[in-house]
Queue: 2 jobs
Job 1
Amino acid sequence: MQDPIQDKHIIVGVCGGIAAYKAADFVRLLIKSGANVSVVMTKAAQAFVGPLTFETLSGTPVWTEMFGGHQSHPLRHIEWADKADATVVIPATANLIGKIAHGIADDPLTTFILAAKKPILVCPSMNSRMYENPVVQDNIKRLSDAGVKVVEPDAGLLASGDVGIGRLPAVEAIGESLRCLLSRQDLAEERILITAGPTQEPIDPVRFISNPSSGKMGYALGRAARRRGADVILISGPSSLADPWGLKVIRVRTAEEMFKAVMAHASKSTIIIKAAAVSDWRPARLYEHKVKKAEIEPSLPLEQTPDILKALGKSKQDQVLVGFAAESRDLQENARAKLIEKNLDMVVANLVGAGDSGFGSDNNQVTLFYQDGYTEAFPLMKKDALADLLLDRVVDIKKRGMITELNSRSN
Ligand code: PMT
């Protein structure tokens, strides 16, 4: 599936606050994600950043005047409302929030907002004393009650030098909020536990056994599930990837640590997806100090790590449990064996070790195996797209029987 922002027409409303310069970065993010962007600015916003900045970034004229000049068009607010897929007000001042909460339309932005269809995302940013003012809070509540999505500001150092709530969140986080608004919320009732990345099994303080998993597949699943409304816990082995927005991320190192973290959250999860490449083996002995060449036998005694997926399969109640299988041969036989042995609802099997797929790549090519014997093979695709597809299948399994129906149609 493509980025929910791609090919959408987004109207960006800019108000007069110190964070107005960050709106320029937000427009860049939208353009980079493939959106068409139109910008409307209040008078005060133009005192902070010139319209030319937004005109250059968006590639279209910026709307600044209600009457007169070459921009004059009596029905522009209706025309823009008709073509918009979503509207983002960034930053939203106390003044602007107050006006739209009370239906005031006295400039291009407020006039357009009154006509705009949802989704509308409002990003308040102001001094904490203004933000915490009960009148402002009341106006924010009015907007929320009217179905406008209000992004809570961050706490931190404010332009006044005070520390408090009121900072505009990172534009990437606002982009994710917008993606959520533009995505179907078919996982809104779900609590999803996802594992990602490799584990590291230490030999001594500087050496370990591991594998080349980057975490990309599991993190893509986490992002996609969050956008579709799920409450997501991501348990990640060592990965250089940043924590995805909106997820609870628990970082672990070893298979044992991952086992404990997974088991602590499993019973509260409605869906569990194990994309992590967990080491099956660990050194039987952990050396306290870096081992010298002469101190160690050429063969290293190993012991098995806990099989997390198998333990989950044993304790499974009515959760959907999805495992991955990384195979370099006999994909079908090995994947089916894992499906049965570990009591899974679905196995995502990928051939690894050849081509730009699987470990470390942005792409993956997988075959899905289900309990009822049905199999689906997919071409090479981006992990982001695959993540959405796998979640579609999980939704089907939750609806019970759809995969079986699919099976009887295609067999
Ligand atoms: O992280 P990336 O770079 O994006 O790469 C993605 C991936 C190739 C790692 C991913 O697509 C993948 O295949 N993940 C599973 C890798 C793996 O460990 O496969 P396996 O066949 O060894 O294990 C089967 C299943 O059992 C997996 O769901 C694994 O999480 C689980 N397992 C394995 C061992 C163990 N001790 N406990 C487990 O829970």
Job 2
Amino acid sequence: MRKRALITGITGQDGSYLAELLLAENYEVHGTVRRASIERLDRIEKVIGRINLHQADLLDQNSLMNILKEVEPDEVYNLAAQSFVPTSWKQPIYTGEVNAIGVTRLLEAIRLVNKGIKFYQASSSEMFGNTPYSPQNEETPFYPRSPYAVSKIYGHYITMNYRDSYGMFCCSGILFNHESPRRGEEFVTRKITLAAARIKLGLQEKLKLGNLDAKRDWGFAGDYVRAVYLMMQHNQPDVFVIATGVAHSVRDFCKAAFECVDLNWENYVEVDSSLIRPADVNHLVGDSSKARKLLKWKPEVSFEQLIEMMVASDIELVKRRKG
Ligand code: NDP
Ligand code: GDR
């Protein structure tokens, strides 16, 4: 029998890659979508005829209960979230409702409908925040620096609590930043690659950024959803850090992206103090030895390959949008 998976947040960056991976693994794939005045299904366009979409929201308990009863999934991947850190200062309560209590809603729904359903929670390296320990692994203490990070810590611990209290298969992946041509345009990597493409094509003059010194461990989303899948196939529910182990600054990212279009980033990038966060996370770099050993996972796409892929895709996108 084909395994059935339900992905919350299937319309997001990771949801779209995970849907493709699970289809390739011969799963029957279901996903949740939120009602909106305009449907935004561009990321899942390629697979739309091969997946099943259902309306649900992490804010609405009944919609989650009903979907679990209807779909009867073997595995639930909870990728849905208010995922943009700056918005979490503007909408801290909403962020907590979705990213923290939303996880409890979904776990409660699973517990009541069928405790045998496996559950994955999308946890984040932002939970480490300004921890003094580096690189960060599964044992590193958390030091959150935003309402987003705090909400994700709640989501992480409630997941582990449902595992320990009810014996449910609940695992949590602490994923470091991962990017792709499908990354939201407000995140720094995509903002830079899109601007490099637009500037190259004469459609933009300057790129305004905030903290150029921030360092992140950036990987490719396609590699990271493979780790997520492997966690759900592991013989026990556990916590895994997923990272490349190499950190680069926002400045390094700018340099490499503009080099892809033969431009010098310093002529175009300006610092705009309004883009500096109330509290930032300055240096994150992950140690994913546990996943490499137990899941036999490793990233395939390098930092340079990732940037080339994103810039090339944005050049094509900008040309299409122009036409
Ligand atoms: P995106 O922002 O691209 O996607 C988020 C998804 O969640 C979208 O499908 C969105 O739907 C959906 N969503 C938002 N609010 C709700 C809600 N109330 N009910 C149901 N669905 C909702 O995020 P990513 O794909 O980048 O990330 C996936 C997950 O992994 C998130 O939980 C994120 O916090 C976490 N994460 C991401 C990392 C990264 O580097 N990308 C690193 C570590 C963790 P809609 O399309 O309607 O907006
Ligand atoms: P992050 O990603 O906050 O790490 O969260 P983001 O790309 O937004 O920021 C990374 C770093 O870049 C600095 N920065 C800017 N960021 C944005 N967005 N826009 C700018 O103009 C800019 N200038 C500098 C930021 O200050 C920051 O230090 C992402 C999200 O996907 C989360 O959901 C996920 O949990 C974490 O990654 C791991």
